[in-house]
Amino acid sequence: MTKKAKSRFVKGLKKFMKSQSSLVGFVVLVIIASFLHDKFFTVLNLTNMLRQASMIGLVAIGMTFVILTGGIDLSVGATVALTAMVATLSAEMPIIIILIVPLAAGALIGLLNGVMISRLNVQAFIATLSVMLLARGLAFVISDAESVKGVFPDVMKQGARANFLGIPLYGIVFAVVVLIAMLVLGYTGFGKKVYAVGGNEEAAKMMGIKTKTITTLVYVICGMLSGFAGLLISLRMGSALAYTAQGWELTAIASVVIGGTLLTGGVGKVSGTFFGVMILQIIANSINLQGTLEYWYVWFVTGILLLIVILFQKRISH
Amino acid sequence: MNKKASLKNNAESANRLNGFTFKEFIKNNRALVFLVLFIIVNTAVTPNFFQLGTLRNLLLQTFPVLVLALGMTLVITTKGIDVSVGAVMAIAASTTTRLYDMGMGLVWCILIGILVSVLCGFFNGFMVAKFGIQPIIVTLILMIGGRGLAQIILGELTISFYGTPYAEMGTYKFFNAIPVQVIIMLALVLGIYFIVNRMTIGRYIEAVGDNNSAARLSGLNVSAVLIFVYIMCGLMAGIAGIMEAARINSVNAGRFGELMELDSIAATAIGGTSFAGGRAKIIGSVMGAFIVQMITVTVNMNGISYNYSLLLKALVIILILLVQRERGK
Q: Domain for residue B261, yes or no?
């Protein structure tokens, strides 16, 4: 290999690492985990992981939209808990209503976030924080801090456990949502506007983009996807607890950051978030399979990983 | 007519003590109005509200939120945020408790716990100032990783130390009446108020938050100022953590100080410190902390189910935010 070709190869590799760092991290982790644990690369473990990842994954996809506009949404975990409860309460109704109600409830919470942030000029952090308390509080009040049970139609109960060609239905649903989100962000006017608002809100405004509407919409999307996650959880559990999905906002934000999306907005990809979700899932799974390490090592390792990713991003962007 | 006008003038000049009018005062201290309103409502509604025991409990329970809010106010004044304070509380409390459990002297345990919290603050400040990473990411890393670290330091799920001198420190009362927390709280409020309003570093902090690049261009060592505020925030978290651990006689690292970051950020926001930076409202944050804590107390003392306390807290915070919001512009 000539020197020139070599340098071109290094450059290309660097570019690839830069654009696909989360994919690279994912592959490396899969290899390490497979060597460390015999049980890792078994069908049962992989399908379980995919099913678990699908619920938090939906939330992380919604979070990606919000973070791309430079915002943040702390209310997602509470929204999942509240919508799971709403879904469980409507378990006796026709299937179409069970499907619509949690999504609508999630969208409504998102709308509240969006209106507070875009129309009333409240900081995203503090606005979604108060909505988080509101949604969690409602979940507690509705359930009286007890477990709420609901008997879902058999079709739905089976769907929650069903595999299609060996792949859990939940995983397929997640993959479809990821694909739709990629299409929306990459190939529609709305997607381009989301990036524009996050890149430079003033410039976007001058270009005639209705920045307030876009901002409101991303929170509605985030709320709706959290509602979707709430629906999936309630179907799987057949019951709902006000404590459900505590701390999910952190995991979702961490997934987005590990996926390479900048919290300043304007830069990032849904595919990155997908791998970010899977990376965190593998870490949790490996520590679980290890058996001797307590669960809190998951937090520690996640923190270290976040630190490495951030420093890596900083180095590359210089 | 003339008489009326002159009366009005008189009234206005009377209000214009120290160069500001009563109206301006209210406008700048809405948190105070809310606090007074809250106290009035509580006096009317809550049985036994104005009793020494109740007020002492209120002070004790407000202690961690208030101390955290002091550090948080400095950080938010520089346009930053610190979501790691709850985790740092747990780290400091775990360090002190573990060392104490291993038989080290109490003073050393506390000093090392405080030192660790200062190191946590330094980590945050260093990453923000020297690497230029967004405050929310840096502190998020410490929030997630720090929770795990606290558990690793503690080594067990929970360590209790009921009846030891460490525990007695948390319930100590001066003259059998004034809890030690009240004295610490007063000292810290005065100290931070002094730093912000009477010392040059206070001006620097506000200058960095007001216009970072202008501050840099005028020769200010912005990095040093940023590191200072995050260290202060870490220190406050350390003090809050160790004292709170001493008061409740045990530490469960996974739960200790949980959601404290949110309460302290809410207290700061209610107190009127703008997230746009540039203006620290220490007394506002103090009142904000009391408002946040009083919601819980009101719910508890009126026999309302605990389930409603989150809901009520959310509604009050949203209401206050909506009233406060024009001020940031």
A: yes
Q: Domain span at residue B272?
A: 51-328
How far from the centroid of its chain's Cα atoms is residue B313's Cα? 17
Element (H, E) at A252: helix A248-258
A34 falls within a domain = no
**DSSP per position, B177-209:** TEEHHHHHHHHHHHHHHHHHHHSHHHHHHHHHH
Contact A296, B141 (CB under 8 A): no
Asked if residue B10 belongs to a domain, the reply is no
B280/A167 Cα distance (integer angstroms) = 55
pLDDT at B190 over 90: yes
Whether B149 and chain A come into contact, CB under 8 Å, resolves to: yes
pTM: 0.84
**Closest Cβ opposite residue A133 in set B132, B306, B310:** B310
B161 inside domain: yes
For B46: left if phi > 0, alpha if psi spans -120 to 50, otherwise beta; the answer is: beta
Contact (CB<8Å) B134/A120: no
Is B135 among the domain residues?
yes
- Is position A250 within any domain? yes
Domain CATH code at residue B55: 1.10.3470
- Chain A, 91-130: which have a CB under 8 Å from a chain B CB? 116, 120-123, 125-127, 129-130
- How many domains does one find in chain A? 1
Q: Can you give the residue range of the structural domain that contains A118? A: 41-317
CB–CB contact A141 B307 (8 Å): yes
- Interval B54-110: pLDDT, tens: 888 888 999 999 999 999 999 999 999 999 999 999 999 999 999 999 988 999 999
Interface check B146 vs A, CB under 8 A? yes
B329 CB neighbour count, 10 Å cutoff: 7
Q: pLDDT (tens digit, 9 = 90+) per residue, B115-140?
A: 999 999 999 999 999 988 889 889 98
Q: What's the Rg (C-alpha) of chain B?
A: 21
Positive or negative, the CA dihedral A187, A190, A194, A196 is positive
Check: CB of residue A240 under 8 Å from CB of residue A150: yes
CATH of the domain at A253: 1.10.3470
CB pairs A-B closer than 8 Å = 132
Interchain CB contact of B295 with A (< 8 Å)? no
